[in-house]
Input
Amino acid sequence: DAGVTQSPTHLIKTRGQQVTLRCSPISGHKSVSWYQQVLGQGPQFIFQYYEKEERGRGNFPDRFSARQFPNYSSELNVNALLLGDSALYLCASSRGGATGELFFGEGSRLTVL
Amino acid sequence: AQRVTQPEKLLSVFKGAPVELKCNYSYSGSPELFWYVQYSRQRLQLLLRHISRESIKGFTADLNKGETSFHLKKPFAQEEDSAMYYCALSGRSGGGADGLTFGKGTHLIIQP
Output
């Protein structure tokens, strides 16, 4: 198993644009979580999805949205990008809905100019 | 609000010396605590969790509710322990709805 896969690995956008990040969980994992990691900080929780339903949401504006598909893959969308959205976006999967042990992907590094 | 504090941004010790990475938390209920580690060019991965009470790669961590701490310890550091270590808290054991709250991380360097 390749583990959690994320795409794209790097991308550059300009302020005001929109971005979609994608994540495929480990086979058999039904929960996907998204985290934002700004340089020098720990990951910060954005969303958790379990069985295609939003289970939790962190303290992020409505510009951030996500969804989970029937095959348990997930997308994170960020609209109206700001310079401060520049960060590494991490996706993590787990077997169940509880936080438990998270398996992280390598992340998508977003740079907003 | 739940919070995790790792007071040391960088910790450098010599090989064979004891290691202690500090973690303090703030949470009013019964938290579940974790240590995650990121080795160079690898993904963030779980090192250990307090409910399992096991030793992984020689590391142990005890939850001290009185001091609200979850320090990570190893009696004899090895060069391969060099990595970024994050302490994390889950506010609702088994719930998952709040995700994990991470500290800012401690960069551990083991000198030969």
Notes: The interface with chain B takes residues 3-4, 31, 33, 35, 40-46, 48, 50, 55-56, 58, 90, 96-106 of chain A (CB under 8 Å). Chain A has no helices and eleven strands. The two ends of chain A are 36 Å apart (CA to CA).
